[in-house]
Amino acid sequence: MAAARFDPQDPGFAERVRASFDRQGAMHTIGATLTSVEPGSVVIELPWSAGLTQQHGFLHAGMVATALDSACGYAGSSLMAADAGVLTIEYKINLLAPARGQRFRMVGEVLKPGRTITVAEGRAYAIDDGREKLIATMHCTLMAITGRDGIRH
Amino acid sequence: MAAARFDPQDPGFAERVRASFDRQGAMHTIGATLTSVEPGSVVIELPWSAGLTQQHGFLHAGMVATALDSACGYAGSSLMAADAGVLTIEYKINLLAPARGQRFRMVGEVLKPGRTITVAEGRAYAIDDGREKLIATMHCTLMAITGRDGIRH
Amino acid sequence: MAAARFDPQDPGFAERVRASFDRQGAMHTIGATLTSVEPGSVVIELPWSAGLTQQHGFLHAGMVATALDSACGYAGSSLMAADAGVLTIEYKINLLAPARGQRFRMVGEVLKPGRTITVAEGRAYAIDDGREKLIATMHCTLMAITGRDGIRH
Amino acid sequence: MAAARFDPQDPGFAERVRASFDRQGAMHTIGATLTSVEPGSVVIELPWSAGLTQQHGFLHAGMVATALDSACGYAGSSLMAADAGVLTIEYKINLLAPARGQRFRMVGEVLKPGRTITVAEGRAYAIDDGREKLIATMHCTLMAITGRDGIRH
């Protein structure tokens, strides 16, 4: 993961990210919490729940991706201008191990910020009986949007 | 999308897929229904709901991916042996347009089946005021698993 | 693959694409020829050669990708404005079968054109003893660039 | 990038990787050299050359991918059994900046080795007037193949 430090353009980035997170119905549904918002780096956590599972009782890959996509998107958003919205253009996720655990931690980090295009990476960890294991990696491309109806941060 | 027709190894593939789908807590949570199960081709539909949204009120990209991943995975599973489980190794999703609509239709199709590795493609459509629009494409790599504890179809 | 028909913005798109292709040293090196340039659809062909192989004597995946990336990029470029340059932001390639054959055909098609972002898909076929086989699929995201030094079509 | 250290199964991994690299016609064509082979980590370098360019004179994205794919593939191969061949199933590349420079360094590292499936990551750096810049990232899925005709390391 990128170890780079970034300077935010918008000093109010953390409040802006938190307010946007609270508007995501999907984050409420999956029981996710925003546990860290730093410039270019965001952490989201959620507990296991039966409503998020695939057929073997592990977290569904799509639910892992839902939380990871939000972590990456908000990592990108944290470095954007105050009036920019962020859209995920595409992402790829590699599922390294079954999402088995009681709790999950998703870390999104900006690899390269840009005026229009930002590239971010994510890591998903499962916490199973106190041990943390890397279960998925995400690589995503984000676009900053300004002045488009219905798209805000 | 692939127009190829495939011969299933397991004559009971449709019941097997339906039973597995019913065990996915995530599909219940997102309100998804399995509307078609053909050899190498599966359709999943779901209605918009506030609990699935991102900050602009559209379907969260992760929720689109959750349904699309299940459609692709079950398309692959339909061509596998009766005792094989299916795991998603990785997928990529391109989000072509905001997921704005009252209803969503996810089509998963096998591009190339294989003994170990199967490649599938997905298309997500939003139905908005009666018009259907392509909103996302998925490309995913699946693995057939046999004889591993805790992994079944 | 997309069956859509697109209207080009630039009536001189085919000449523009051909002139750009001729400036790609990499296309000369791999022996590629531009065999079709239609709005949103481009075909590139090349023969097998020992200088393009991996360790088993098949075409190297990177060389398949090189030709496929050009096919997708020029498919996108064909729909862009006359003064726009095209950059590949990212692509994913799935290698479905070894690239074994005497000749290879790469088809790039636009799935969704856009003012800034264009999404394209590619298919690579190997022609082996007269039979054509799908060996790889590509999905890529392109960006139109205008007014940036050193970037032209 | 992964900082993990891995134990090779095959004590002769480095010679095996070097011998395979020498059989890749594509590596000769692009002027690539294998500059480091460690367990789970491989570095490949190459100079700029006119025969590897796209229309702006930068390294063609496909050529960056060719070298990066080999770096990732051999990183995976270094941890496999002596009689296993390695196939790239799929990869994704994000192009972060134009490949402008006199020399290029490609680093491939295993993120998660496996009996069948190995996941690796790559970083491509351009060295331009003595300064090194990250220009691309790759994420790829490899498969170990044994006992298949025509596929060896």
TrEMBL record, chains A, B, C, D:
Reactions listed under catalytic activity: a long-chain fatty acyl-CoA + H2O = a long-chain fatty acid + CoA + H(+); a medium-chain fatty acyl-CoA + H2O = a medium-chain fatty acid + CoA + H(+); a fatty acyl-CoA + H2O = a fatty acid + CoA + H(+)
Record EC number: 3.1.2.20
Domain Thioesterase: 56-130
Annotated GO MF terms: fatty acyl-CoA hydrolase activity
InterPro entries: HotDog_dom_sf, PAAI_dom, Thioestr_dom
Entry superkingdom: Bacteria
Pfam families from the UniProt entry: 4HBT (PF03061)
Keyword Hydrolase: yes
Record keywords: Hydrolase
Family statement drawn from the similarity comment of this UniProt entry: Belongs to the YigI thioesterase family.
Protein name from the UniProt record: Medium/long-chain acyl-CoA thioesterase YigI
Record organism: Ramlibacter lithotrophicus
